[in-house]
Amino acid sequence: MSVVSRLSVNVNAVAMLRNRRDLPWPSVTGLAAIAMEAGAKGITVHPRPDERHIRRSDVFDLAELIEDRFPHKELCLEGYPAPDFLKLVEEARPEQVLFVPDDPEQSTSDHGWNFARDTGALETAMAAAKEWAVTVSLFCDPDPNAAEHAARLGAERIEIYTGPYGACYDDPAGAAKELDKVVATAEAARACDLGVNAGHDLTVDNIPALLARAPFIREMSIGHGFTADALIHGFAESVNRFRKSMGEL
User: For residue 5, what pLDDT is reported?
Assistant: First the structure.
């Protein structure tokens, strides 16, 4: 019996490399297909207003790819819930949307929502996404209180920002402290009946310790670490390597 993977491959870095030239390669959809054929759960992309990596056209190409060839896989769109992004969600109808509190100029997501300040904007965006039958996840700092806020807002899932944990790759004591925070947040979310995702700077080296303590995490969105690994091992083999680190193979 096959095991459903937790791995959602973020292909933003593929698009960034492609955008260096006015050429169609490397192919975002081609490499996404390789990842899903190798066993990834789905694909994550974070289209930004300036299209510096993923373009609007990529979103629709990926949605079509999944609908036509991989109907049991998932597309997750990540972004700040501005009107243009919400319009993209409405048109593309991904399986999941991850709302993040990013400024458009940020190079990457690096903090969770301030729920006390941003409740109104999130409630409006979440109501719209649910009308479109799109699962809503909210990006949270590793803080149990954040999970409780997300649950009160009516989110279906959270994604825990694991950047601080990943940043301690050469600091075992620091990694242990950051792991405690991630696990406490995951447990608080589970207690609130929220699905738990995790993402940022996860690697084949630091995933096992996380899943040993929080095996109920249902999805891991991995882009930078996956792409770095794939430059050495190839996209298909990196799917295998990450799935092995998750105990799926």
Answer: 96
